[in-house]
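wait is this the right file?? whatever heres the structure
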């Protein structure tokens, strides 16, 4: 696990080693164990190393093949590298190190781009072919590891984080106003845009092929494909799922340093820890809880420390925990904005503190991300659009639900200062564009459920993974996600919908005849997702965990924004000099914020996003000079 950065001069001018060094220095937190720069002609590759496999100097990067043809700067872990190494040795390749990096190099030398689908793991890489003068940038199939890039002034700049690009001489930060419309609609980005003008996030399972003097080539080498294809009765499917889950966890324990685990109190992280702990004597586990003295309603269940402590007792882990209070959000916000850069998918500062805690005791932690998105963990969302006249009708209904921050009709008022510049942006078309590769004919409710699973894997899951990576690496910590093992995901995508959702037939019956308010209430009560996976995972966790109502990792911010944090919210958002009011209408913003503060509507997601945007603009756009925050 590391950080990468680099330059390709498309005009053939020589790349600057000093520039690459500046770029890698900007992401030193991603790799405190070593650094390297390689420059030849128009290309320069930089690397920061977090040593996890083969801790010796042999693992330094950028790394070249024995014949010198291929050079790579690589960030990630390939969990099946030993199997690939054996296969490549049979084909005549010889290895000098025990690293997965050298296996990546040999795989490209042998198979070219066809190596990418063979990798079971997470990665972002830059590989230069000296013979062809060709640079390949590529990202793993799920988007676990980020890779940003921009083409400007006759050159391509790239890096694991935006700040690496901004550190290059002549680079500068400017707001992408069109991306802001996208974010204020979805609290996420469904395209490859970022809040930084001209800087794109390479999509998952995508490779860019860059050669001076030639057009940029782009290829997508894998995609999610949710369809009912697995055969067998439910008992047989459960046994197959169990085997693949255990295999996935065991695969991701490969490391030459200790491996810990997040233990949230939920079924996913609990089952991962249960399988991993017997294989790692003295395994450490980590939980972040919340002070609930001022919480109310559903938020009273947000603190799961008691369940986590009980599971730690059962599994025999060395357990550590942290309790967050309302003021911790304000304290973390400057550093959070600096490290996260682009905001995505909700309040993420608890993740920042969780990673900070885990990083005190090791370099690797297992996380439970991915099980919900692959195995159907959000039924109250899918059930909103299961009976439709056609694909357009489905898009209309699901799009209405996914306007998480502002409804489309609210955008002109809130974005009034820049509305003439962005009025052409069509959020509905952005939403529908996610389905371009997955809009085949649909005739059954199950088909629409699979479309929803596809959509959320492409968007919501991707957002979660970007956040997971950035906030773990802010502390020099590698977060691994066993539920996104290739084999387990392939199995999950092909499960019958009946193995994921228990109330689909009931929802279909009520969809057309139930009044809207009652229908919405039914959806909110429905927590029957991950049916088969839950059956498997409950073999590993106590009943009080396996039968609990699903709970996301979120602080009680709805209450805090009206209580202990209200002064912070008002100080930031009522400030007439706030940076956000360069692009947002202050009166329109405060009218929406006051709806929350006065208890008329729960707009906690919007309040959080506005606070974050202000911190983001102060960090990256004030005086057009990024300001590092420790």
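ok assuming it is, sequence goes like this
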């Amino acid at each position: 696990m590391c950080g990468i950065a680099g330059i390709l001069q498309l005009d053939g001018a020589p790349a600057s080693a000093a520039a690459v060094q500046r770029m890698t220095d900007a992401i030193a937190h991603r790799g405190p164990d070593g650094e390297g720069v390689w420059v030849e002609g128009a290309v320069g590759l930089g690397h920061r190393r977090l040593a996890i496999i083969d801790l010796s100097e042999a693992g330094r990067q950028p790394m070249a093949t024995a014949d010198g043809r291929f050079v790579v700067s690589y960030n990630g872990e390939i969990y099946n590298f030993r199997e690939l190494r054996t296969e490549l040795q049979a084909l005549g390749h010889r290895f000098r190190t025990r690293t997965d990096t050298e296996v990546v190099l040999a795989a490209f030398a042998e198979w070219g781009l066809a190596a990418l689908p063979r990798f079971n793991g997470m990665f972002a890489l830059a590989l230069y072919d000296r013979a062809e003068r060709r640079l390949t940038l590529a990202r793993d199939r799920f988007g676990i590891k980020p890779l940003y890039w921009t083409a400007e002034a006759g050159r391509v700049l790239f890096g694991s984080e935006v700040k690496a690009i901004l550190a290059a001489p002549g680079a500068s930060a400017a707001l992408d106003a069109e991306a802001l419309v996208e974010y204020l609609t979805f609290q996420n980005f469904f395209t490859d845009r970022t809040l930084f003008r001209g800087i794109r996030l390479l999509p998952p399972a995508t490779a860019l092929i860059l050669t001076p003097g030639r057009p940029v080539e782009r290829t997508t080498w894998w995609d999610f494909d949710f369809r009912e294809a697995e055969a067998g009765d439910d008992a047989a499917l459960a046994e197959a799922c169990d085997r693949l889950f255990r295999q996935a966890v065991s695969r991701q324990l490969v490391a030459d340093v200790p491996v810990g685990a997040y233990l949230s109190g939920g079924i996913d992280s609990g089952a991962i820890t249960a399988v991993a702990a017997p294989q790692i004597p003295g395994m450490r586990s980590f939980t972040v809880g919340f002070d609930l003295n001022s919480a109310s309603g559903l938020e009273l269940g947000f603190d799961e420390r008691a369940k986590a402590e009980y599971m730690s007792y059962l599994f025999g882990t060395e357990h550590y925990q942290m309790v967050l209070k309302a003021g911790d959000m304000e304290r973390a916000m400057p550093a959070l904005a600096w490290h996260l850069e682009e905001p995505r998918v909700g309040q993420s500062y608890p993740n920042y503190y969780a990673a900070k805690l885990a990083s005190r005791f090791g370099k690797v932690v297992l996380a439970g991300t991915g099980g919900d998105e692959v195995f159907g963990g959000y039924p109250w969302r899918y059930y909103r659009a299961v009976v439709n006249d056609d694909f357009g009708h489905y898009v209309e209904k699901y799009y209405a639900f996914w306007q998480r921050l502002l409804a489309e009709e609210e955008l002109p008022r809130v974005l009034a200062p820049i509305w003439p510049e962005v009025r052409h942006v069509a959020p509905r078309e952005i939403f529908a564009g996610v389905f371009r590769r997955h809009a085949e004919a649909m005739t059954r409710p199950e088909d629409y459920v699979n479309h929803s699973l596809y959509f959320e894997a492409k968007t919501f899951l991707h957002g979660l993974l970007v956040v997971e990576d950035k906030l773990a690496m802010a502390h020099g910590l590698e977060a691994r996600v066993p539920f996104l093992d290739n084999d387990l995901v392939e199995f999950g995508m092909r499960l019958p919908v009946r193995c994921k959702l228990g109330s689909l037939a009931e929802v279909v019956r009520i969809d057309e005849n139930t009044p809207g308010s009652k229908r919405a209430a039914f959806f909110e009560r429905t927590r029957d997702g991950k049916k088969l996976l839950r059956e498997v995972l409950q073999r590993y966790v106590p009943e009080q965990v396996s039968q609990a109502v699903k709970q996301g990792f979120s602080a009680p911010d709805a209450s805090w924004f009206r209580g202990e944090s209200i002064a912070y919210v008002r100080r930031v958002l009522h400030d007439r000099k706030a940076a956000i009011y360069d692009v947002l209408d202050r009166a329109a913003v405060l009218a929406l914020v006051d709806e929350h503060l006065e208890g008329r509507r729960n707009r906690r997601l919007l309040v959080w996003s506005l606070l974050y945007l202000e911190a983001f603009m102060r960090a990256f756009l004030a005086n057009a000079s990024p300001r590092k925050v420790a």
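The chain has four domains: 2-174+194-220, 234-375+451-546, 389-441, 565-624. so i think its the right one actually
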